[in-house]
Amino acid sequence: MVRAAVNLIPEEPIARMVELARHAEALGYERVWIYDEGLATRDVYVTMAAVVAATERLTVGPGITNPYTRHPAATAAAVASVDELSGGRAFLGIGAGGSLTLDPIGLERSRPLASVREAITAARALFRGDAVDIEGETLRLRGARLAYARPSTEIWLAGRGPRMLALGGELCDGVMLDFIHKPSLGATIERIRAGGRGRAAPARVSYSTMVITDDAAMEATRPHLTYRLVDSPPAIREAIGLGDDDTERIRSALADGLAAAAEHVRDEWVLPFVIAGRVDECATELGDIVERHGIDEFLLPVLDDAGAAGLMATVARVLSL
């Protein structure tokens, strides 16, 4: 059976995040990822600490952090600290970061592939307890060491580009794929596996998208497809019938916020990126995807507090069928 996980975005108070995490644990979810969106959300490590203190079994990690807002060694120390607090239930999720996180604090996403590679390499060595010396393109460490880390702490990467996916396959325990165009999913996973050829154990895959069983879930999802649609490669935009004029209309409306841009997003553009239908139809489609592509984890993004508990319960039903 595929492992069930949720991704919580801490826009609401930390106490609410704890409540949702405990609800997820009661429903049988095994892992909680916590969005790290910088100033737009509560601090990811404070939230993680609160969640592990209030739960018994959940594995918890940033979903995802980046190598820019914190020094990668400080990130490794934070994850190791939460891991110690939880008795070994923390992991590191990392990627290149996005504009929502980086722009408000004036950081550029410079040399993302090198930055992520060096952050992963440093974290892996620090988790082993090594004394780490790195003179990299983007990172320097001089005799850095963590005396309290767990060597088997997992590192997961989230990304879309072919080189980033190959990096995840090469260096990480797993790769998280978020709202991937479903017809492109097989090729995307193949890039991960190609990057990891020769490894004793291939990187696992966490597949993350929304499960839509009613109109409310569609409306909650639509705003979060806006920026994903306009940033999709031309071939995918063409495949779903999203023209240049449509793309520019959504892009222009984003200046007024996600809700304004969502008014220009049609259902037929959303459906190729999500699981949608009745509960039994969603269970059949998701089960087929999991079996066909060897998915290890299904990650539900909880994008809106309104209806979050009900959504988690519905998806738990989908995963149980």
Structure description:
- This protein has an 8-stranded parallel β-sheet. A two-stranded antiparallel sheet has the order 5-6.
- It is globular.
- It has helices at residues 14-27, 44-54, 72-86, 99-102, 112-128, 162-171, 185-195, 215-230, 234-240, 244-253, 258-262, 267-270, 279-293, 308-320; strands spanning 3-8, 31-34, 59-62, 92-94, 132-135, 140-144, 155-158, 174-178, 204-208, 211-212, 275-276, 297-302.
- Helix 1 (14-27) crosses helix 2 and helix 6 (162-171) packs across helix 7 (185-195).
- The protein has 2 domains: 3-210 and 294-320, Alpha-Beta Barrel (TIM Barrel), CATH 3.20.20.30; 214-276, no CATH class.
- The mean pLDDT is 96.
- The protein is an alpha/beta fold and 321 residues long.
- 47% of the residues lie in helices and 16% in strands.
